[in-house]
Amino acid sequence: MSGGMSGGFLYLQTAGEIMLAIALLGMAGLIFFVYSQFENRRGLTSAMLLLLGIGVGIAGLAHLADLPRLWSGANRFEAVLNAFAGVFALGSLGLAMWLAPRLRKRFNKDLEAEIAAHSATRNALTKAESELEVRAAAHQSELARIKQRFELALRNSPIGVFTQDTDMRFTWVHNPPPGMSSKNLLGRRDEEVLPLSVAEPIIAAKEKAMATMQPQELETTYESGGRQRALYILVEPMIDKDEKAAGTISVVVDISQRRAQEMQLRLLLRELTHRSKNLLAVINAIARQTAARTCTLDEFLDSFNARLVAIGSAHDLLVADDWRGASLRNLVQSQLYNHLSSNEDRIEVEGEDVMLKPEAVQNVGLALHELFVNAQKYGALSTSGGHVNVSWDQFDGHGVKLVWEERGGPQVPRPDSVGFGRTMIENVVGRALNGEVDLTFDPDGVRCEIAIPPSQLIAD
Q1: Residue 112: which of 165, 15, 39 has the closest Cα?
Q2: 141 Cβ neighbours under 8 A, 6+ residues apart
Q3: What pLDDT was estimated at residue 117?
Q4: Are 350 and 405 in contact (CB under 8 A)?
Q5: What is the side-by-side order of every strand in the sheet holding 326-327?
Q6: Is pLDDT larger for residue 308 or for residue 48?
Q7: Per-residue pLDDT tens for 84-116?
Q8: What is the SS3 string spanning the chain?
Q9: How far is CA 173 from CA 182, 184, 185, 187, 225, in A?
Q10: pLDDT for residue 432
């Protein structure tokens, strides 16, 4: 054996190499044991342990592989160093093996604590998730109720709601006006669904709402299904989280009915003005004629007031039916029964009810009043045994003939002069109705026939 080293040192170095190899291989085994305790072996720590175990194991194998070299030559210092290193390595291995179970216990305890902490966290998250689900369900339920109330409120109303983006394209539509549908509006612009003349002021209002961040309102009209529709539009800007305009939301109210009512009201006001002027002219004529045929102020006031009451009764019927006209039966009753409530059996009314136009209501009412007053003063109603029959029926298949007939009263002489009532009945009423009036003074009682043409009747 070369190198001049005695056999004792050779054996000492060999023993040191063997102890180092055993220690390193033991360390490698211990490292692999610790590695095997990890549940998740894909982490960085597990990878480092695996590489360290492999490296230590290779080093141990290298010391075993270096044994043949020792016998070829070694010095005493290296022999003592190897022996010391081997003893230290075996001592370290023994200490590590003694600490391994305790480290494992500590490791398991820490692992259990970590698992418990994760479990508590998971339970807390599960509880929070459950609470969030409950809250979300409550919010969804509340939103569903709000949506239901919203839809119920607008279902049968003339109110529609729209949203549009900054490009003015419809993004949501609810309860659109007549002639429009959600399908035809979504994704389109105003000028694509409305005539340009109608769309331009609407677009201008929406652009102004987004530019000024202030609500805008306007009214417009459009034609749908051959009918003119009127809309009131309120435009509000939609604001995003950056306080910028994200589009518009518009509330559209169909005011067609209101517009029609306003037009009808204007027509009624014009008609009322016209009729008021005519009525004033009639009252003026009645006043003049009554004054010319009365001798005292009291007599004038009684006659004039009675005629005003007759006109007022006729107008009450017209007002009750929005000035469209009045029932002939109601007209007869208002002129006769109100003045003879205790003797209604003395007046008979017969005929199928018809509707008279306003002009006919006023003039036929005056004629009935004059006939009634004459019957009270001089005719059938001036005695207890007299009675009056008022009847009407169709003639020529279209018009109506009203007949006033008195019976059971005193003998009726032929009047020598023409009074206001006769003039009113024969001349004014006939011309106003564009019909015929036949007033006869039969000795058995006055008879008056008034032909009311179809033009003065309201068709059913």
Answers
A1: 39
A2: none
A3: 86
A4: no
A5: 326-327, 355-356, 457-458
A6: 308
A7: 555 655 665 565 566 566 656 766 777 778 888
A8: CCCCCCHHHHHHHHHHHHHHHHHHHHHHHHHHHHHHCCCCCCCHHHHHHHHHHHHHHHHHHHHHHCHHHHCCCCCHHHHHHHHHHHHHHHHHHHHHHHHHHHHHHHHHHHHHHHHHHHHHHHHHHHHHHHHHHHHHHHHHHHHHHHHHHHHHHHHCCCEEEEEECCCCCEEEEECCCCCCCHHHHECCCHHHHCCHHHHHHHHHHHHHHHHHCCCEEEEEEEEECCEEEEEEEEEEEEECCCCCEEEEEEEEEECHHHHHHHHHHHHHHHHHHHHHHHHHHHHHHHHHHHHHCCCCHHHHHHHHHHHHHHHHHHHHHHHHCCCCCEEHHHHHHHHHHHHCHHHHHHEEEECCCCEECHHHHHHHHHHHHHHHHHHHHCCHHHCCCCEEEEEEEEECCCEEEEEEEEECCCCCCCCCCCCHHHHHHHHHHHHHHCCCEEEEEECCEEEEEEEECHHHEECC
A9: 6, 10, 8, 10, 21
A10: 78
**160: closest CA among 238, 259, 228, 249?**
249
C-alpha triplet 373, 379, 380: angle, nearest 5° = 105
N residues, the chain: 460
pLDDT value at residue 269: 81
How far is C-alpha 400 from the geometric centre of its chain's CA atoms? 51
Cβ atoms of residues 450 and 433 within 8 Å: yes
For 19, the token pair is 């102890």
Tokens of 245: 């305009």
Average pLDDT value over all residues in the chain:
78
What are the pLDDT digits (tens) for 359-392?
A: 888 888 888 888 888 888 888 888 888 889 999 9
Q: What angle do CA 421, 427, 429 make, to 5 degrees?
A: 80
Judged by average pLDDT, the poorest of 78-92, 236-250, 282-296, 321-335 is 78-92
Percent of the chain with pLDDT over 70: 74
pLDDT at position 102, please?
64
Over range 37-61, report the average pLDDT: 61
Q: What is the pLDDT of residue 95?
A: 58
Closest by Cα among 238, 204, 243, 197 to 221: 197
